[in-house]
Amino acid sequence: MLADLDRLTDRAVDDIHAHSGTYASGAPVTRQDLWEICRDNLLRALEDFGGLAATGGDFEWAARETGRRRAEQDVPLDTVLRAYRRGGRVLWQVMAEHLRARAGRDSDSRDVELDMASGVWETIDRYSVAMADAYRIAQLELQSRQDTRRVALFEALLDGRADDPAVAAAAAAALGVPPVDRYVVVVAAQDPAAPPHPAPALEARGMWSYWR
């Protein structure tokens, strides 16, 4: 089956595109990007199932790389998981077809198919968990970096650097507000008995705010 890896990858990509509008749109994940990720995961899976030495990272490594990359591209986790399982489904179908072609359609081959299906889906589920864990970790790391950048840019505004167009544009993008608008700056002593940030209460009234 390794000899047909590229054809298997094409089939998996076509199936994912047929069942996911996000992937079919080509943004942010291009067809080439999806093809390369699918090929890498399918290669690791076949090596894992066949008891072969991994060429590079193992199947779990490939799953973690998929999760990290899709988190960086801001593809929803549910969408990534569905695509991952679509790829697993295609892999199982091709393995079953391969087995039937070699063994014929007798009762023994059906038993082998059932055993193989159980192993395939157990493996896919296990590595779906690894992929999802890596996705969540990458999301937290990205959020931490974004929060750090947001705080630094907000401090730059408070330090009077808003006249710098580059700083103003970067701060507006980081804070998610228009670069040109009317804003109110509030300075107040913090009340220990009050909520730490009034942003949720203000947002409920249709007012955006950012607090430091």
Task: Give an overview in words.
This protein has 212 residues and is mainly alpha-helical. The chain has a domain at 2-148: Globin-like (Orthogonal Bundle), CATH 1.10.490. It contains eight helices and no strands. The longest helix is centred in the middle third of the chain and has 52 residues, at 107-158. It is elongated, with a radius of gyration of 25 Å.
Keywords:
212 residues, 8 helices, 69% helix, elongated, mainly alpha
Helical amount: 55-70%
What is Rg? 25 Å
CATH class descriptor name of the domain at 2-148: Mainly Alpha
Q: Strand content of the residues, in percent?
A: under 5%
Residue runs with pLDDT of under 50 for 5 or more positions: none
CATH fold descriptor of the domain at 2-148 = Globin-like
Question: Which structural class best describes the helix and strand composition?
Answer: mainly alpha
Number of helical elements? 8
Average pLDDT rating: 87
Q: What's the β-strand tally?
A: 0
Describe the biggest sheet? none
Succession of helices and strands: HHHHHHHH
Q: How would you describe the shape? A: elongated
CATH-defined architecture of the domain at 2-148: Orthogonal Bundle
Ends apart, CA distance between termini: 58 Å
Topology summary:
Blueprint: H1 5-19, H2 21-24, H3 31-49, H4 59-72, H5 77-103, H6 107-158, H7 165-175, H8 199-203
Helix pairs in contact: 1-3, 1-5, 3-4, 4-6, 5-6, 6-7
Please provide a brief summary of the model:
The chain has 212 residues and is an all-alpha fold. Helices cover 69% and strands 0% of the residues.
